[in-house]
Amino acid sequence: MKTYRMKLLPEYFNYIKNGTKRLELRLNDEKRKELKVNDQIIFEKLDEMPEYLTTKIVYIYKFRNFEKLIQHFDIEKLADKTVTKNELLTKLNQIYTKNQQNKYGVLAIEIELV
């Protein structure tokens, strides 16, 4: 079992902390290709007062791009019911370009707090 560190914007960190967000969405780049079920991810909240959450990987879903991924899951697993799928997709496309998504593919990493 390995432990990885990932940074999160405060709103997405809080969704995990509150138990609403159970899938972390990332590019399937070289760093993420090493992830395995039962590995741990320590999330750091990008804020003036950093916080940390330790999670365990339950399952890893692979998709071609975020548009396909978002169509597959309910918004409650991806973020929070206060966010629309279109809002989430817009945010993801600002963080990761279409070229990056096409080059690497994307992941939905199912997590649980430990």
Report a brief summary of the structure.
The chain has helices spanning 10-17, 66-72, 75-78, 85-95, 98-104; strands spanning 3-8, 23-27, 40-45, 52-63, 106-113. It is globular, with a radius of gyration of 13 Å.
Description:
- It is a single chain.
- The chain has helices spanning 10-17, 66-72, 75-78, 85-95, 98-104; strands at 3-8, 23-27, 40-45, 52-63, 106-113.
- It is an alpha+beta fold.
- It has a 5-stranded mixed beta sheet.
- β3 and β4 (52-63) form a beta hairpin.
- It is globular.
Write the layout of secondary structure elements.
Elements: E1 3-8, H1 10-17, E2 23-27, E3 40-45, E4 52-63, H2 66-72, H3 75-78, H4 85-95, H5 98-104, E5 106-113
Parallel strand pairs: 1-3
Antiparallel strand pairs: 2-5, 3-4, 4-5
Helix pairs in contact: 2-4
